[in-house]
Amino acid sequence: MSHAAELPVWAALLTSLLLLVGAGLTLLGAVGVLQFRSFFERVHAPTLGTSWGTGAIALASIVFFSSLGTRLVVHEVLIGVFITVTTPVTLMLLARAALHRERAEENPNVPSRAVMRRRGSAPAPEDGAGDAAGTPSS
């Protein structure tokens, strides 16, 4: 039993457009994984598909079920919030774990901690010859 016959034309077109955009963005994220070479480059491509792709597909579901009036749209909102919160956290955890592993293996292509520090956040010299930014005191 399909409710598609009861769906207004504007809702059907908007739902179709949002589904195509969501599927396209997800496909773009998957192609990005194949195109990039290193893990650190590859980790960024799927976030496009999970955030914007899932958002567009969830929005299509909201439009579809709201226009039919069959149920409340709580599920899609919760999915969107969950994806928005968990994707950046997962990305950071994976990137930090990979960076830690690469530094432990002493990979020459990964910058050391000293290179990654900002100039203002460098520790103060122990001999008292300058300030925290590394400028000599007069």
Automatic annotation (TrEMBL):
Instruction: Show the ranges annotated as biased composition (Low complexity).
Output: 121-138
Locate the transmembrane regions by residue number.
12-34, 46-65, 77-99
Where are the annotated segments for Disordered? Answer: 102-138
Among InterPro entries, the record links this protein to:
PhaG_MnhG_YufB
Record keywords, A-Z? Membrane, Transmembrane, Transmembrane helix
Any one GO molecular-function label of the UniProt entry? sodium:proton antiporter activity
Q: What is this protein called?
A: Multicomponent K+:H+ antiporter subunit G
Q: Which organism is it from?
A: Chelatococcus composti
Lineage from the top down? Bacteria, Pseudomonadati, Pseudomonadota, Alphaproteobacteria, Hyphomicrobiales
